[in-house]
Amino acid sequence: MECGTLVAALLSAPERRLVTIVLCELPGLTAAIDAAHAEDVPAILNEYHAVVGAMIDGHGGAVDKIVGDEVAGVFGLLVAREDDPVRAVRAGLRIVGELKKLARPDGALLTARVGVDTVEALVRPGVTPGSGRGVLAGWEISIAARVLAAAPLGRVAVGALTQRLTAGDFGYEALPIVSIRRDSDRAAAWLVKAPTARSQVRWTARGPAVGRQVVREDARGVG
């Protein structure tokens, strides 16, 4: 009756995998909307979640989980690509750009910030992205959260490994070291400036083919 129990447990155990995490948040959203517009918050969050999800999905990632105004996406989980870090940074830039087109009830534009970090993470292979259970396991996602904390409003910040892997595709400016609790618990962060000319050429030259499936990334507005 218990045949296969150990095998099933091993198959469902978390495994280490190199992934690129994208974290996005809308700091101070609820505090900025007075009580008269409190009923509009759910609609704003739904629209915000839809925009972020579309940008992550459109660049080849997957939304892992959504908690209030924070959305976590992951690249390299379902399909691992050599340019996953580049895709993740591009998704971050598109997210902050698209959200600036949306307005709050008080007339102010939505201003998000995004943190991108490439880490060797513990991944739960049996969990479906977007199920709410969280595919990512372990503390690695907290490092991405520190990178997010370094990002100015309306901008994208990346971690040290992401910066190294995408240095030929984006211009960067070093940000102050982020320290959350103790001196040794810190992370380097870099501010994304703009895609390089090389990046534009490489992205166009890669074409729309992803594996054996043709994805019309140009039609989705991936840029």
Report what the structure shows.
With 223 residues, this protein is α+β, with helices and mostly antiparallel strands. It is 35% helix and 29% strand. The protein has one domain (14-218): Alpha-Beta Plaits (2-Layer Sandwich), CATH 3.30.70. Strand 7 and strand 8 (186-195) form a beta hairpin.
Per-chain topology:
Elements: H1 5-11, E1 15-25, H2 29-32, H3 41-58, E2 62-67, E3 70-75, H4 84-99, E4 113-123, E5 136-137, H5 140-150, E6 156-159, H6 160-166, E7 170-179, E8 186-195, H7 197-206, E9 209-210, E10 213-214, H8 217-220
Helix pairs in contact: 3-4
Kindly provide the radius of gyration, computed on alpha-carbon positions and rounded to a whole number of angstroms.
Answer: 18 Å
Output the number of helix runs: 8
- The CATH architecture comes to 2-Layer Sandwich
Shape verdict: globular
Count of the separate structural domains: 1
The tally of strands reads: 10
- Tell me the name of the CATH class: Alpha Beta
Strand content: 25-35%
How far is it from the N-terminal to the C-terminal residue, by CA? Answer: 54 Å
The secondary structure category is alpha+beta
**How many strands, what sense, and barrel or not for the largest sheet?**
8 strands, mixed
The CATH superfamily appears as Nucleotide cyclase, GGDEF domain
| Unreliable residue runs | 5-10, 207-223
| CATH fold category name | Alpha-Beta Plaits
Q: From N to C, what is the helix and strand string?
A: HEHHEEHEEHEHEEHEEH
* Helix share, percent: 25-40%
Average pLDDT: 76
